[in-house]
Amino acid sequence: MLQFRGALLSFIASFLTFMAIGGFPSFVEDMKVCLVGGFFRLPNDLPKPLWKYPLHEIAFHKYAYQGMFKNEFEGEVYPNNKAGGPPIITGEEILRDLWQAEMGYSKWGDLAVLLGMIAFLSTYVFGHHQG
Predict the structure, then answer these.
(1) What is the mean pLDDT of residues 61-76?
(2) Packing angle between helix 60-73 and helix 2-36, nearest 10 degrees?
(3) What's the confidence (pLDDT) of residue 96?
(4) b/e per residue, 85-97, with b = 16+ CB within 10 A?
(5) CA dihedral 32, 55, 72, 108 (to 10 degrees)
(6) Is the pLDDT higher at 128 or at 76?
(7) Helix axes 60-73, 107-127, angle to 10 degrees
């Protein structure tokens, strides 16, 4: 019985060590992607050399959030609660000024980029394991 307890303790200790080593870097990578995707920080607040160019540009969260925001706000009109401003504010102004979304393309452009990322990554991942 004592050998069983020792073996079980050894297994649990090695398993927890393995999970700590493998789980923490994955969490850190997820947080970096969310950080540069425009969810935690607005794009103009990101440091320029590395975080905005290129990491913000290749983060899939950026295109997902911008597409979702464009779908919700484009073509809408909202009351403006700011003192001294116009009585209404358009969804495009909210996207451009508040969320700092890129307005040079539509929500369908964001969707096309996401689908392209899915196609590229699935080809890259599954293409390298056909051997």
Answers:
(1) 92
(2) 60
(3) 94
(4) eeeebbbbebbee
(5) -140
(6) 76
(7) 150
Establish whether the linkage from the previous residue to 43 is cis, with ω within 30° of 0.
Answer: no
For tokens 């295109």, name the residue: 63
79/82 Cα distance (integer angstroms): 9
Closest CA to 40 of 20, 62, 21, 58: 62
Query: And the tokens for 6?
Result: 């020792």
- Cα 99 from Cα 49, distance rounded (Å): 21
Q: How many residues does the chain have?
A: 131
In the block, tokens 């990322």 appear at: 117
Nearest to 43 by CA among 114, 104, 113, 102: 102
28: its two tokens: 């850190």
